[in-house]
């Protein structure tokens, strides 16, 4: 089996998603693969500013990311983490859309051969009832998916 050439990893800026970013960065570095870091976000409307402030104050688990500026900050921080873990070539993408659709679209456009996500949501009741990002991308992806154990 040949090494991966392009790895896509999703992040929402949470501590658990950054664990997946670090794992993807180490793997991309070991394979000398390009790493594409993706943050899906919702556009910020004027009437959502108060809601965003409330989410920002909650900290961990503040997904969904709302607004391009916070999404840009998320991918910038994630890129630093990935480089620190060993990644060489890193591309940052903040994209308007839902996490699952965005990740699958970026995998296709980037011609990736591996998608990396954290396992947050897989074991939750909500995740079992309505689905989760890792479960949905694993089911729908046309490329290998690495689900990193990021939660206890």
Structure overview:
With 152 residues, the chain is of the alpha/beta class. The chain has a single domain, classed as Rossmann fold (3-Layer(aba) Sandwich), CATH 3.40.50. 45% of the residues lie in helices and 22% in strands. It contains 6 helices and 6 strands, in the order βαβαβαβαβααβ. Strands 1, 2, 3, 4, 5 and 6 form a 6-stranded parallel beta sheet that branches. β1, α1 and β2 form a beta-alpha-beta unit. α1 crosses α3. The chain is globular. It starts with 5 loop residues before the first strand and ends with a strand. About 13% of the residues have low confidence. InterPro entries: Rossmann-like_a/b/a_fold, Universal_stress_UspA, UspA. It comes from Geodermatophilus siccatus. This is Nucleotide-binding universal stress protein, UspA family. Belongs to the universal stress protein A family. Pfam families: Usp.
- Annotated CATH architecture: 3-Layer(aba) Sandwich
Shape: globular
Structural class: alpha/beta
**Major beta-sheet overview:** 6 strands, parallel
Write a concise keyword list for the protein shown above:
about 150 residues, single chain, 6 strands, Rossmann fold, about 20% strand, alpha/beta, 6-stranded parallel sheet, globular, about 45% helix
Task: Summarize the helices and strands and which ones pair or pack.
Blueprint: E1 6-10, H1 15-31, E2 34-42, H2 49-58, E3 65-66, H3 68-84, E4 90-96, H4 99-109, E5 114-118, H5 125-130, H6 133-140, E6 144-148
Parallel strand pairs: 1-2, 1-5, 2-3, 2-4, 5-6
Helix pairs in contact: 1-3, 4-6
Protein name: Nucleotide-binding universal stress protein, UspA family
InterPro entries: Rossmann-like_a/b/a_fold, Universal_stress_UspA, UspA
Family: Belongs to the universal stress protein A family.
